[in-house]
Amino acid sequence: MPLSRTFGAIIAALGLFLAPLPAADAFGPVKSLPQQTAEARLLAQFQSFAVLTDGTVGIAVQDLSTGEEQSLNGDTLFPMASTYKVAVAGKILSMVDAGTLNLQDLLDPPLPAKSRSVHDLIDLMLTHSDNDATDALVARAGGPAAIDEWVGALGVKGLRVDSDTAHLLYRAMGISPAAGSFRRNVAAALEADSSLRERDARDMPNIAFTRDPRDTSTPRAMNALLANIQLGKALKPASTAYLLDMMERCHTGKARLKAMLPPGTRIAHKTGSLNGYGGDVGIVTLPDGRMFTISVFVMKDYKGRETRDSIMAHAARAAYDYFLFAPARRTA
């Protein structure tokens, strides 16, 4: 190769190394030292709450103004239990938005009982976590697959709906149902199997169930569903307001997310409970009007309900203080 061509090739190669490096902003906003310190403190708090249990804790929070996320085991799958009822309500209200269902339409619950309106069933499902009301709505929605499809259409990944409440609970309890009502099947199974009775009485987890990918969500995926709802991407404005108002009137979980928040704090949330498992997911409004989503799940826990509730309460307060008082964040 002629010397001139060799020299040119060397210069060209050197040019790859002598070119100026891209600015730091090319890789995203630069975090200030105070912000990095605040984030590290929050994650350290999450870790300290997690060691209270002998199980697994998942926590995810997201600022709905900036999109900032912080999490512990945020991409780990957890059983949803009754937190999946947010998705059930969303699918039903999307049908109301489409004009194929009316809130005053009457539906029949699984057990022989008087027909109730869609509005009443949603109220029972979200404010009291009523399972019969939920399964009447799941059936009207077109079954679990239709609810799962609605969630997927929002772009939410990591959350799947496979069962109605009765069949979710059968799997959680390790029951193979026979013909007959849910209550009759559960009573017969508990009578026949002393290990089931012990697990139920001692609030112990079914480890096989916690490893089943059906009817699960990651904390971040549940936050994505909540964000879609709050930001008006899932439903029309009237249905969005209706759903969030219902969730603000949730009667369950008083010792969970809302327990340590300042009195009067607005929180729209939904709880879930199973043996050895507890969850609470919601949207918290700060005094200045900013909002953040939070999903906390605890599974495989043998310490008991009070421990699980305490983890959720402390996580919510830590997130509240972080978003309210942490240094200003760069968002661009």
UniProtKB/TrEMBL annotation:
Superkingdom, taxonomy of origin: Bacteria
Stored SUPFAM superfamilies: beta-lactamase/transpeptidase-like
Key words of the record: Antibiotic resistance, Hydrolase, Signal
Sample GO molecular function, one term: beta-lactamase activity
Enzyme class: hydrolase
BP GO terms, sorted: beta-lactam antibiotic catabolic process; response to antibiotic
Residue span(s) of domain Beta-lactamase class A catalytic: 58-298
Enzyme Commission code: 3.5.2.6
Signal peptide (UniProt feature, chain positions): 1-23
Catalytic activity field: a beta-lactam + H2O = a substituted beta-amino acid
Classification via Pfam families: Beta-lactamase2 (PF13354)
Similarity comment text for this entry: Belongs to the class-A beta-lactamase family.
Protein name: Beta-lactamase
Species of the source: Sphingobium baderi
